[in-house]
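Fill in residues.
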């Protein structure tokens, strides 16, 4: 059996990568050291995030009402539309009065991240991503999931509504022709034993491409990005800085900072993700969730592409 290639072996054959935060501000922060690794390997990086999650605050202004957890990217202004459900934003971009985390990242990095929306369902996101990827000549996608919730088996979350949204993104990514790598970070961000069990299952199923440990300078960059963002507490009682929740409630240690990379993979959930692939609207995704056909307690992983070690390394 041929060994799974390492992350370095894969990225050395790539020119431009989309580093996509699967859900929320923490994923964007976790994406920073991954982007640095890719640049060192000579890969140009395009950042991206998804149009849902809790909103960041500017200047600690706690009196502002939070924006909708899921929104239509067409409402972001100013923004450059690359496809119906994918836009490119700047630091001045807003949704109504609200500033998405990607706009904060644009100011922090001097870049123009993408924001991807789910209002067209999995079909809409898949098609829009394919269009944007073609236009930007992207040949690799790295999907960053700080907590690794997309690999959950139901044991940690009683009702995985958040994972339903994240699984919708994974379902769209699994349909792309462009190869996808999944990066799970923040080892201390949730139940370590549950996470270790999931990581072991993935290792047995597909192998691991490697791990990235942020350097001291990269850690400083991550903390600086944290200082510009904040995370809403689901109870609505208060809001806390992202730096207090990223990496396991502030437990900034080597295991909390380590990023494990798997892929190319797609998670196929018998009761959820397979059904989500056919959805053409956010309402259709939500109907499946309300009907109890969202993510089940049984998840299965399968490889969707294999890299050849020769030539341009196109996936087969």
């Amino acid at each position: 059996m041929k060994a799974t290639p390492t992350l370095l072996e894969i990225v050395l054959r790539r020119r431009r990568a989309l580093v996509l935060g699967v859900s929320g501000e923490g994923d964007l922060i976790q994406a920073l050291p991954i982007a640095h690794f890719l640049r060192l390997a000579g890969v140009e990086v395009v950042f991206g995030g998804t149009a849902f999650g809790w909103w960041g605050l500017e200047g600690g202004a706690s009196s502002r009402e939070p924006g909708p957890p899921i929104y239509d990217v067409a409402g972001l202004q100013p923004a450059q539309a690359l496809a119906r459900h994918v836009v490119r934003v700047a630091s001045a971009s807003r949704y109504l009065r609200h500033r998405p985390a990607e706009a904060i990242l644009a100011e922090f990095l001097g870049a123009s991240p993408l924001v991807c929306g789910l209002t067209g369902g999995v079909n809409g996101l898949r098609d829009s991503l394919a269009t944007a990827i073609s236009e930007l000549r992207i040949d690799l996608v790295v999907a960053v999931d700080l907590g690794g919730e997309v690999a959950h088996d139901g044991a940690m979350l009683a009702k995985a509504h958040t994972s339903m949204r994240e699984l919708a993104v994974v379902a769209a990514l699994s349909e792309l022709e462009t190869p996808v790598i999944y990066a799970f970070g923040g080892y201390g961000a949730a139940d370590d034993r549950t996470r270790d069990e999931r990581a072991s299952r993935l290792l047995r199923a597909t192998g691991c491409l490697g791990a990235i440990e942020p350097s001291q300078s990269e850690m400083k960059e991550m903390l600086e990005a944290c200082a510009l963002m904040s995370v809403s507490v689901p109870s609505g009682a208060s809001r806390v800085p992202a730096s207090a929740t990223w990496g396991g409630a502030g437990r900034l240690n080597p295991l909390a900072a380590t990023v494990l990379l798997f892929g190319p993979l797609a998670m196929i959930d018998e009761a959820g993700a397979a059904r989500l692939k056919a959805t053409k609207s956010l309402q259709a995704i939500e109907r499946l969730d309300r009907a109890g056909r969202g993510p089940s307690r049984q998840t299965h992983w399968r490889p969707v592409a294999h890299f050849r070690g020769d030539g341009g390394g196109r996936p087969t």
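The longest helix spans residues 24-40.
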